[in-house]
């Protein structure tokens, strides 16, 4: 049995270039089209394919170094997955590409295996060895796609977070942060970090935190706002809260929340007016 597996493994390695070329030629038309659009050198793809074919052959007669050969499968899958994501290939197309190796290997060796009259159990053993290793490759490719997607989501989420806490400079030393939507613990932390960072960068004296776009202010949200104001105060920035609607104010009072230490003004316009900023007088001509 071992001799037969070694024969098949060595034969696969000896014909690795032929098998690699066949994998390319037998590609599904859709996948073939995707690869042609990318204008990838066929020689590069063939060499990359031949590497996997050689590893497939090696696993059939690997005894003491099976784990090392398995690591070679993982390494190939990792590189294939990373390359596919960089080239914007779909996961479906990439996995289909890998599945092509199995069918090509069987097609090439079917006739010879029949001539040598290998036992059915030998063919079953070959399948039991090769198939799990190709699954390892597919799993690793899928993992690389998952990691890639997580990075994209993380970047998009970071960009969205930046947009969710816009710091709008109004005048020298004065800026406004308009808050729209819900405030949870994570967003409150983001507001605090952004306010402190931008407050220092813009050298702010006053910061208006407008919450007219916040639909609900409960105990947790109110406490988060208090912490933000206190942190800014320590940094030398005076904070004014605007836009607390009457119904929300009533709710806050009923919850026993104390905003006496915080300056609150009904709306942004009034806050700017109180700070000494108002509409420019354009009636006078220079």
Automatic annotation (TrEMBL):
<dbReference type="InterPro" id="IPR051932">
    <property type="entry name" value="Bact_StressResp_Reg"/>
</dbReference>
<dbReference type="InterPro" id="IPR036513">
    <property type="entry name" value="STAS_dom_sf"/>
</dbReference>
<dbReference type="InterPro" id="IPR002645">
    <property type="entry name" value="STAS_dom"/>
</dbReference>
<protein>
    <recommendedName>
        <fullName>STAS domain-containing protein</fullName>
    </recommendedName>
</protein>
<keyword id="KW-0597">Phosphoprotein</keyword>
<dbReference type="Pfam" id="PF01740">
    <property type="entry name" value="STAS"/>
</dbReference>
<feature type="domain" description="STAS">
    <location>
        <begin position="164"/>
        <end position="275"/>
    </location>
</feature>
């Amino acid at each position: 049995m071992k001799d037969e597996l070694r024969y098949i493994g060595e034969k696969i390695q000896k014909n690795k270039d032929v098998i690699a070329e066949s994998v390319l030629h037998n590609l599904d038309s859709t996948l073939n089209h995707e690869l042609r659009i990318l204008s990838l050198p066929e020689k590069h793809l063939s060499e990359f394919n031949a590497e996997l074919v050689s590893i497939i052959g090696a696993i059939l007669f690997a005894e003491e170094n099976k784990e090392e050969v398995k690591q070679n499968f993982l390494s190939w899958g990792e590189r294939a997955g990373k390359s596919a994501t960089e080239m914007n290939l779909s996961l479906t197309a990439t996995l289909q590409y890998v599945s092509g190796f199995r069918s090509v290997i069987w097609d090439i060796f079917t006739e010879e295996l029949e001539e040598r009259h290998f036992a059915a159990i030998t063919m079953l053993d070959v399948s039991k060895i090769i198939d799990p290793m190709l699954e390892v490759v597919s799993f690793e490719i899928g993992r690389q796609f998952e990691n890639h997607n997580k990075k994209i989501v993380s970047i998009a989420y970071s960009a969205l977070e930046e947009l969710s806490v816009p710091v709008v400079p109004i005048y020298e030393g004065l800026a406004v942060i308009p808050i729209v939507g819900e405030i949870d613990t994570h967003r409150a932390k983001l507001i605090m970090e952004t306010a402190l960072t931008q407050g220092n960068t813009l050298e702010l004296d006053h910061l208006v935190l407008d919450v007219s776009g916040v639909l609900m202010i409960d105990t947790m949200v109110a406490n988060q706002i208090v912490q933000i104001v206190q942190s800014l105060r320590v940094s030398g920035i005076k904070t004014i809260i605007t836009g607390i609607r009457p119904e929300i104010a009533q709710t806050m009072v009923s919850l026993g929340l104390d905003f006496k230490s915080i300056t609150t003004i009904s709306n942004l316009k009034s806050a700017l007016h109180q700070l000494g900023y108002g509409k420019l007088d354009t009636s006078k001509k220079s």
